[in-house]
Amino acid sequence: MNRKAIKAAFPKTIPVMLGYVFMGAAFGILLSNKGYGFWWSSISALLVYCGSMQFVMIDLLSDKFDILSAVIMTIAVNARHLFYGLSLIDKYKDLGVYKIYAIFGLTDETYSLVCSSFVPDSVSKNRFYFFTTLLNHIYWITGCTLGGIAGELFSFNTKGIDFVMTALFVVIFVEQWENQKNHLSAIIGVVGTVICLLIFGSDFFLIPSMAIILISLSAVKKPLEKRLEQ
Fold first, then answer.
1. What is the reported pTM?
2. Average pLDDT rounded to a whole number, residues 167-189
């Protein structure tokens, strides 16, 4: 059963693998340039496992550490996971022993795959969700470790290297757009985000936009499901 789940999950995670290895390597290189050994990259990838927060963490570690600021920043950066969790209650309710790790390992890309991937009838959905999460985590650890090692061995011009995260999000969005026949959810996400960005500004748009997206998708959920069943 595990082999079937891995075989079903692995092809779905290949785009994430390509993104995570390079994005993790970028993080490892940046952290290494701040004077931290490669094992710091590996440990943060294993225990923190939050790409956006790990990039923010580089600046937090570079200055005098303020634990209160770090806590507030972490909550703000990861607030979107509150909405992710609410939307996955039904999918994860029967995960059993896999649930704790699945919750810990939930990232934007894993969330995207869990919500959009078709799981074959012969494969346990619970194991599919678990191995999707695990494979993505392995990719991230690998990328961060390789980047940390490369940063210790070679000198890099790191200007613009942190854009790799934005590039990954764009690739995943385009792939989902091409694979889905109904683009309503993507349109709601883009329009809601742009409106909140214009109203609240780049520093405060994330939480309002996630709230609008959640409310909007909840409102169209049943009509959308009926249309997909036809």
1. 0.73
2. 74
